[in-house]
User: Fold these one by one.
Assistant:
Number 1:
Amino acid sequence: MAERPEDLNLPNAVITRIIKEALPDGVNVSKEARRAISQAASVFVLYATSCANNFAMKAKRKTLNAGDVLAAMEEMEFERFLEPLREALEVYKKGQKGKKEVSEQKRKDKEKKNDSENDKSREEEEEEEEERMEEEPEAENEAEAEEEEVDN
């Protein structure tokens, strides 16, 4: 786990961005207030994680999932956040599905490209083999003709 209490704090840049997005333009927040909000957010995240972990342990799992977090929010009496969390989770899942589909499409395109390149190289090899086959009988005929001349 964390070696120092400060290691548990969320990044200041993230906290500052969240604060700016939540407040109207022109509102300034002191450094002390940002630090206090950061510490409060860190405590909240740790508490929510602990509650979610309890749900995972009851289910005899070591991995927390979204259901555990939603159940923890309900247990902590933050029901008003459940619907926004579900919506955000759906958006996230759709984004991940889209990324997966794009990645899969790129993989298929790459396979098609490799297959077509392999087909082209096979065709070239077959053509070269046919040319060699055509040249070999000529070379054999010449060798036979030379042998006959030597025999005579």
Number 2:
Amino acid sequence: MAQTKFWFFFWSAALCIVNVQKVYSDRLPIVLWHGMGDTCCFPFSLGGVRKFLESEIGVYVKSIEIGNSIVEDFKSGYLVHPNQQIEMVCAELSKDAMLNNGFNAIGFSQGGQFLRGLVQRCSTARVKNLITLGGQHQGVFGLPNCPSLSSRTCDRFRQLLNYAAYTELMQNFLVQATYWHDPLNEVKYKNFSTFLADINNELFINQSYVANLQKLNNFVMVQFNNDTIVQPLETQWFGYYKPGQDKVTQGLKESELFIKDRLGLKKMDDDNKLVFLECEGNHLQFTKEWFREKLFSYLM
């Protein structure tokens, strides 16, 4: 009798998954990854974005939650190392039957570089189009107006990062230290950044990172032209400061990373897989109309 109940439950669950997949069969699911100072499900942020996408595109949308509660998810944006987060998310997504046939992914702020890390490291994640909104692909050097419940918290983070970003303690303790990119000390950054320097192939070329990134149909990067949080602005398009100073910036195509094609981005550009979009708002400030016009074509 117990066995009969088990198989009834198993086939009922399987049938439910099949029926749900049929509802969304026309379009790929979407995975969202929130940024610093946010969570998966706040109704005024990603919770609202999820409902917007579900209602307007009619797809299954999964908003990544790190931990077992909203509080844990919020703290993860500051205190759970990106390497650990990516490992957890890779395992979680591989168990979601709705994502078996591939999905599109949208990263918000630091969630953008985390999703790119997922694409490069997680072979089971079949991402078709990667969209990053205000992502910091070459890192940051400064945290002006950082999103936090307390401005005092932001000030403390800034002070810590300015003086001790590449210490083992800070690299393990504070998420933002793992993508802190000091243009005045490139050698130290490349040797002691425990996340960004790795996924950007700074010390040596991990060919699996290159190969996995090449599998994308499109890598869409959105830059917010009036951003007061991300510094420098150009990192959202994979640009950064010219090495050795923190005043003059350069675009992706001027960088050594692109010229030597250490990450395969030159090849992706040749294949028309890199897309650079602008939004005139502040950090992550966009309208539904802008989102429909600029991004729906990569999600439909």
Number 3:
Amino acid sequence: MSSSESDDMSDVEEAARAAANGDGDSSDEQENGSGTGSDDGEAKDKTAENGTENKQTWEDLGLIDILCQACRGLKWKAPSKIQREAIPLALNGKDIIGLAETGSGKTGAFALPILQALLDNPQRYFAVVLTPTRELAYQISEQFEALGAMIGVKCCVIVGGMDLVTQAIQLARKPHIIIATPGRLVDHLENTKGFNLKAIKYLVMDEADRILNMDFEEEVNKILKVMPRERRTFLFSATMTKKVKKLERASLRDPVKVEVSSKYQTVEKLLQYYLFIPARFKNVYLVHVLNELAGNSFMIFCSTCNNTVRTALMLRALGLAAVPLHGQMTQNKRLAALNKFKSQARQILISTDIASRGLDIPHVDVVLNLDIPMHSKDYIHRVGRTARAGRAGQAITFVTQYDVELYQRIEHLLGKKLPEFKCEQDEVMALQERVGEALRTARVEQRDIEERKASKTGKGKRGADDSDEEDTEQFNGVRKRLKPGNAKGGGKGGKGGKKSRRN
């Protein structure tokens, strides 16, 4: 190893030495603690399910002091159920298949054992975490950096939509943890000189059922071929594939299945409803529900990118602060939209399924399934954006006459019938005219944006980037206000546009 590499590693090595020196006295206590913990595990599970604080501590799981401090620094008072089950097994060197409801602390369940192993054996390119979406990759990186802040852990996020050269420079600095989407990681393996995964000790697949799906088959095969067989592999998800061949592709060795929920389920504090409506009045009912539950923070799921933008434009035309998020946006704009919602500068995030998996936004109060998901497992992930880590939340699914079969599949998966969300039909229909006008305005806005994009195509990179107006805020209403004779069409939208410019 070169002297520069050893200098770079000194922060982790120093932390490792300090942990080794300072932790010797507590090892007996940890063994005793974990022993007593297992004796009354059932009682603890019950208290955890009821939401009360669990008696088992981070030390009881076998974690070293510096990581226990990091957990408490993040206000993680006690380990969650999946963490209690998975961390001791991971520290003992087992491959793990972890299945737990969304929002139950799965990231901590794989991040903490990896960080402890890194302290025991400091090296660069130590672990790779694969995720299906870019936003989830950034979130996992934040958690690793927060947990590893005291030991100087370096992380690198490798996702599509960002500059390849910049990412290659980050990889050349040899981070400890690489968090990546499969496609972009393969790009770097094939094109970035000097980059390889031959020394990797840990591979994690977060949202593993999605990564092992056909969508990523080619990329995952390429990644597995260039990784050492002598490694630990963790698969985590809220819904896991049952197809053995898919799991075999992950090259697990004698895996232990950690399943803290025996069937696909949602957390107990999540109130779930359905709303059976005529398809042509879907937008009217949406606005009514937003008014009824005003003051809450909403995530609205749509099936297509176009519907996401159109719904956001319609709500902004009604004076509601909504921001869209979908796969056709540039990565920088996707992150900007997400940050606006996370910082609570916007109360409504309208998204396709790219935001359905793994994202942890604590303040989400209500999830609305405006378009019902095609796959019933996606429902579990969508509604898991609320009622996270012991908090309460609501989820409402809009069911039209065309969605009955898809909805019945969801109820079958959940194993229960959901109650209906009550609406006064007269109150809903009173909004019909206003919503209809806002929808017409939104369609005109959307057509204008698409025409502007088309007209700027071929004008170079800057022109293409300037045309990327997915946020819709700076254009909504403002342009109409500037055009004579269009004040009526853009009144409320203009107000919304003005507000967005101040923010």
